[in-house]
Specification:
alpha/beta, globular, five-stranded mixed beta sheet
Amino acid sequence: MTDETSELFTPEDTAWMRRALQLAAHARDAENEVPVGAVLVLNGEIVGLGWNRNITLHDPTAHAEVMALRAAGEKLTNHRVVGATLYVTLEPCSMCAMALIHARIGRVVYAATDPKTGAAGSVFDTLIDPRHNHRLEVQGGLLAEESASMLRDFFRARR
């Protein structure tokens, strides 16, 4: 992590992102899924964990972020997770971005950018579009190289 990046994130942010990276490795190793992990935290407590499962579940919506939201919804018996922070190892896509907005997440922290489908500024600005009725904070780049390396290695091995 660069000095510039370390000023943007707390030690707790780093610890939660490390947990998300563990979930990404689980997706890769246990289910041969694209290694993306997500941890949803509310008031300092994990309320939802997720990793990519779209291949395993035959479900195009089973991205790590959506899986974490589903787990939180069940745990909290609510479709909203107002003020929670989502830690995810890859910049959310448009589908996940809209799910996060509808869930009223307060903050999204992501590791690696997604130059093909990223919706937090790389390709689209879905998460921060001022036309939404809900605003959330977005920060990227936390442990980005670790996540990007895991993704690169995964796709190289598949070629």
